[in-house]
């Protein structure tokens, strides 16, 4: 097993009204010698916006804005914007997050060239009611009980055209592959993958075809005991000589409720729909007091990572209330993953 160092909490909530309930689930990126961190800031009533700070090194906050860098602007995100991830493709930053209107939670994209001015590209995942999802994907005999179990709210409101399957954990790969954008998304309980030539092509016809061949787009399914409830995306994939390193989250149910772990897998560099390897155990799990107790107990939720020399720093939400960091040798992790290559 790979040795993990829990570096501890680097960001806590403050008395500022936009983040007085919690800070969690950050996006992180290195640019021009600086480390930029975008985080979910939660105000009373569970209304979220995106906070921002700059790190002088992987563990030290240098500057922290006292107001959000992104706030809800549209009806589809009136209850908050949550759980950002960020990559840079060519000369553009792609910041993805979950828009929440109080009923629907859907993956949304904003772009920027400078971290200051952001252009909303809107919701880019499908707005699909459960009944339509069921009809399309049943052409493959695909809707097993697990999809029914994890989408009960949507199933119970099938008479409404405005209630869609939750589609979260929208995460872009940090470069085009074979001249296509690739991104992950998650309709519980599995992780799905999308490839598309242009973002504008993600229209109704695209998703109709996608769900008619839904089985082909399932990237990872729960496999091990620590994944037995469901899994979802975590950090943007990291390109390595062995493949795309994917840090994701898994969930399993216990007598004390759900437990969220950080996990690791490898995907093929030129064909990222192909899983090369997966650790059969969690990379790390809730063990410290600040991971075990918080707004939601027993949570390590990884959403961002950077590499410095041989050290991989993983940034995660701890108990849905604070932001912490774990570090490890990326070369040792890759070696361990290759031991489980399929």
TrEMBL record:
Pfam families named among the record's database cross-references: Glyco_hydro_130
Keyword Chloroplast: no
Keyword presence, Hydrolase: yes
Any one GO molecular-function label of the UniProt entry: hydrolase activity, acting on glycosyl bonds
InterPro entries, per the entry: Glyco_hydro_beta-prop_sf, Mannoside_phosphorylase
Keywords recorded for this protein, A-Z: Glycosidase, Glycosyltransferase, Hydrolase, Transferase
Coiled-coil residues: none
PANTHER family according to UniProt: GLYCOSIDASE (PTHR34106)
Entry similarity comment: Belongs to the glycosyl hydrolase 130 family.
Name the record gives this protein: Glycosidase
Source organism of the structure: Chryseobacterium ginsengisoli
